[in-house]
Design brief:
Strand content: 15-25%
Structural class: alpha/beta
Distance between the termini: 150 Å
Helix content: 40-55%
């Protein structure tokens, strides 16, 4: 294998593209650098050294030869572009021309069609002006890759004459049943059955429809847990009665979290087709079957490998809730177990391995990359002037704004929780005081009732004694009467004469 380095060009880090690039760096023995390019923001990351060099973009543009000499010093022999939005596209074009190296493009989504392709729904549409620029850039690449047949098909329809090769995104995660469950955020599960959603869920991934599904599940024993975020709910907690948001997680925690929450199925409510989906790979690797839309790579992968259910075309919240209720019913348990058992089969194609992806990419790197000449001095003054003097440069402004917003949300949440605690504490104190008053009144009432009962029992006892004495006196009288001669007894029994007058 050649020792030249690969420069990956992408936008601001995040999501599946960022995971993909870092997986490539972990699995490869060659050096890998990442140029993060955005409007007024540039930074170069050395993956092997875990260093980020924020750049002064204006100086890069004013003194381009210096950064090119620095890249030559890093022995860049190939550029691999992962985003065809304006800034990454222009940086990649400039570097390849200046270094005299080739470019490989991976299409990770449908944004090559238009800037707002995610807003188009299930059928992405192309913007002619945007597509003209992206197709010229993609067509000049030495190789164009896509992670799924679905995305490759979309690209072939809109990029005629350009060959698209498929290299599935490999996963380096290996889950075992021996892992201890991660602590779940909501404590004791309030539902008997749980459907899990992985990742950041925005409008194009069906956030609003997911809320509607949760509302339709009210009154059932089924809950939805988002292991990640909703666009309108960044803080962990209940978003609906049947919709809980876990919050941030590490990829290696997925299997443990799924077990901790008792996930029976994985759920996807995407309104825009997925191009591959690491979330699907992670759910399958953890042994969880899935419910997916019919189109895109999600529907394609389930149709090919099983281990899941495809929703109908133009599915609604009622369709999703109905399928969940059926699968988690007594009558659906057999179907659920049958489909889940398909994951027990050893099918290496279901979840592509990181090793297979790395081998495919390394073969392409070796085929199209070049061995650079002797590097120039990278520590020269010209090169050093390109590096930002502080870490608060333009690259981090957007991130700082996001962090500040998240901190504000956290503080707002904390203030709300404090207010709720004070309110609940006040209500509890009032309730305890009322309870103590009620208990005291009840105790007094019970004491009065006990005293009255005791008096009643004493009176009853005395009455019984008096009755007993009367009965005894009557018995004595009868006995004495029996000793009187019969003639006299008859006389005594006669009615006495009227003594009046």
């Amino acid at each position: 294998m050649s020792a030249f380095a690969v420069l990956h060009v992408t936008s601001v880090p995040g999501g599946g593209v960022d995971r993909h690039i870092r997986d490539i760096g972990r699995a490869s023995r060659r050096p890998h650098l990442v140029w993060h390019a955005a409007a007024n923001a540039d930074a170069i990351e050395l993956l092997g050294e875990r260093r980020v060099l924020p750049l002064d973009g204006r100086r890069v543009d004013a003194e381009p030869h210096a950064v090119i000499e620095w890249l030559r010093a890093q022995r860049i022999g190939l550029v691999h572009t992962h985003s065809v939005t304006t800034e990454p596209r222009e940086r990649a074009r400039w570097v390849t021309q200046a270094l005299g190296v080739r470019n490989i493009v991976t299409l990770h989504d449908v944004l090559f069609l238009s800037r707002d392709a995610f807003a188009h729904g299930p059928v992405p549409e192309g913007d002619p002006a945007w597509l003209r620029d992206t197709s010229a850039f993609i067509g000049a690449a030495a190789a164009v890759l896509a992670p799924s047949e679905y995305l490759a098909g979309v690209a072939r329809r809109h990029l005629p004459g350009i060959a698209i090769d498929i290299v599935p995104n490999g996963s380096g995660l290996a889950f075992t049943n021996d892992e201890l469950p991660t602590h779940r955020a909501f404590g004791t599960p309030p539902f008997r059955h749980v459907a899990a959603v992985l990742g950041m869920v925005g409008p194009h991934k069906g956030a609003r429809l997911l809320e509607q599904v949760a509302e339709r599940l009210e009154g059932s024993d089924i809950g939805i847990v988002v292991i990640g975020y909703l666009d309108e709910c960044n803080l962990p907690g209940w978003h609906r009665k049947h919709l809980f948001v876990h919050g941030t997680y590490q990829d290696a925690e997925v299997a443990s979290l799924l077990r901790a929450y008792g996930a029976g199925v994985g759920l996807f409510t995407n309104q825009v087709p997925e191009s591959f989906s690491y979330a699907l790979s992670d759910l399958w690797a953890a042994g969880v079957p899935v419910i997916v839309p019919p189109g895109g790579a999600l529907g394609e992968r389930v149709a090919r490998h099983g281990a899941g259910w495809r929703l109908p075309e133009s599915f609604t919240a009622a369709d999703v809730a109905g399928l969940l209720e059926r699968l988690f019913s007594a009558g659906g348990s057999h179907e659920l177990a049958r489909v889940k058992s398909q994951l027990d089969a050893n099918n290496p194609d279901r979840v592509p391995s990181l090793q297979d992806m790395s081998r495919s990419l390394d073969a392409l790197y070796d085929h199209f990359g070049i061995e650079p000449g002797a590097p120039l001095e990278a520590g020269s003054n010209d090169v050093q002037r390109l590096l930002a003097t502080t870490l608060d440069g333009s690259l981090f402004r957007a991130e700082m704004v996001r962090f500040a917003d998240e901190i504000a949300q956290l503080r707002q949440g904390l203030d709300y929780e404090r207010g709720e605690y004070a309110r609940v504490s006040r209500e509890m104190k009032e309730w305890i005081a009322k309870l103590e008053s009620d208990v005291a009144a009840l105790q007094a009432q019970l004491a009065a009732q006990a005293e009255a009962r005791s008096a009643a029992e004493t009176a009853l006892f005395e009455q019984r004694n008096e009755n007993q004495r009367a009965r005894e006196a009557l018995r004595v009288c009868r006995a004495e009467l029996e000793g009187v001669p019969r003639v006299l007894r008859r006389l005594f029994r006669k009615k006495p004469p009227d003594a009046r007058g």
